[in-house]
Structure formats: C-alpha cells, structure tokens
Amino acid sequence: MIRLPFLLLVLLGLLLGGCAGTPAEPPRNRAVYHISEAGEQPVRAMQFIRNHLEANPKAVIAVVTHAAGVDFLMKGAKTERGNAYLTAIEDLELLEVRFLVCEITLRERNLTRDRFVDQAAFVRSGVAELARLQSDEGYAYVKP
Fold first, then answer.
1. Which of 56, 111, 138, 139 would be 26's cystine partner, CB 3.0–4.6 Å?
2. Which of 39, 35, 120, 119 is nearest to 79 (CA)?
3. Residue 71, domain member (yes or no)
4. Would you say the pTM of this structure is higher than 0.90?
5. Is residue 1 included in any domain, yes or no?
6. The total number of structural domains that make up the chain
C-alpha cells in the first residue's frame, strides 16, 4: 500500500518539476477589439494589438468594426497623419488577426463590400458579433 505522505511528495514533485527552471509559456487567449470610431481609435487599436501579440504570440485576435470604425478598413484609408492603414492591416493578417465589418453599417451608410480591403470579412451585425464572440467563444473584450 502506498503511503499518503509519499503520494503527496510525488504529486508535489510533478507539479514543481514541470515549472522548475523554465519560464511559463503564455496561454493561448482570445480577444476581440471593438472599433466604432474613426480617427485615433483604429491607430491605438493597431498598436495595442501589436503589443498584445508581442506579449502573447499565441493570442487569437478578432477586430470587430461598425459605425465610423469601418472607415480604416476601406481601400486607400489613411491615418490623420497621412499614413496608409493597409500595411499594418496586412502585417496583422499575417499574424492571423481577423478584421470583421458590420453589414448593417454598410447598409446604413450605403457602402458596398468592394470598397473594403481584401483582408476585411463581413458579419451581419458588429454588435451581435461582439456579443457572440464573448459569450459563445470566450473572447475577452478590448475597447481601445
């Protein structure tokens, strides 16, 4: 019969042995970045996402846009300083960041899908997608 103190010692050794001497790898987490404004919000979001992925390269990130927040995903869109968004979008897409555009916004603003960069995907409702990602898929909510 195995004695309880011995069993506890073995379990403690297994727990500590897996952690000893090696830094913990960051967990694969999920985050949804909510962009609903033009101007500085998309610029901040892109920087926050780069920082997020630097700290945790395994993070799964979705960017949900609606209202004026869709503007930075339009072809030829530039920051207030005149820099094109496309390069940053392409770089983040290579890191598997998804960019989602609200179709209700398109309808309300009389916009068509062909006005958006190739990296943009479309969802029926940006707000509904935010709720779905949080409640059904466990995404953390980030509002830059």
1. 56
2. 39
3. yes
4. no
5. no
6. 1
